[in-house]
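Forum: Protein Structure Q&A
Topic: Joint prediction for protein chains with partners

I've read a bunch of threads here and the consensus seems to be that you should model interacting components together rather than docking separate models afterwards. I'd like to see that in practice. Below is the full input, 248 residues plus whatever partners are listed. Could one of the regulars post the assembled result?
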Amino acid sequence: MYRIPILQMGQTLLVTIQVDMQDQMALALQDDLANKISRSGAKGVLIDISALEIVDSFVGRMLASISGISRILDATTVVVGMQPAVAITLVELGLSLEGVRTALNVERGMELLAHDRREKPLAP
Amino acid sequence: MYRIPILQMGQTLLVTIQVDMQDQMALALQDDLANKISRSGAKGVLIDISALEIVDSFVGRMLASISGISRILDATTVVVGMQPAVAITLVELGLSLEGVRTALNVERGMELLAHDRREKPLAP
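Posted by a regular:
Agreed with the consensus. Here's the joint model:
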């Protein structure tokens, strides 16, 4: 089966979604990401969706679920590169991407993750 | 038409190739990359092919041609993430990816680009 590659850059994992997601692919991605976070100890996950022209409720749920899984594994997820038209449609559809953080592009997403890491105090 | 997204991170552009390339797509990618290098002034191009299970002479030529275009625009191209089986097949087929630099993964590719930038003396 076709799997979406996960690139590691330091403490951050980067996923570029380029094709329309199907059930199996979304499940495989969640699985692969969870494994990779746990193996690598990554602190951040960047998901680039700049290639997507449609984000429906299925993709919205997938993004929320990846965010949730990452959070439990102590990593922050940031969705980047959303096209303006996609944002408009999401709001019109009443999909608010609850619990999903976003940034304009990969660079801003990286900054957000770096800022987050600096803010987080060490466990007492 | 489906276009492969190009992500910018500082002075580096990152392209993840996830699907089998066709003529039109390869031409569009070359075009987009050339434009993006010239607009952004990027110094490096990382092409991740970890998702590809087959690299034939068409893809090989595309990688060589992207390297050539980037070089003229004063950017270095590094192909990263090649699967071991792909490397074996390439050599067996007699395709040596002439003029294409490679690195094991994105992180090593980034290091190579950073190292290159430090080495290059400023124009006299």
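The mean pLDDT of chain A is 91.
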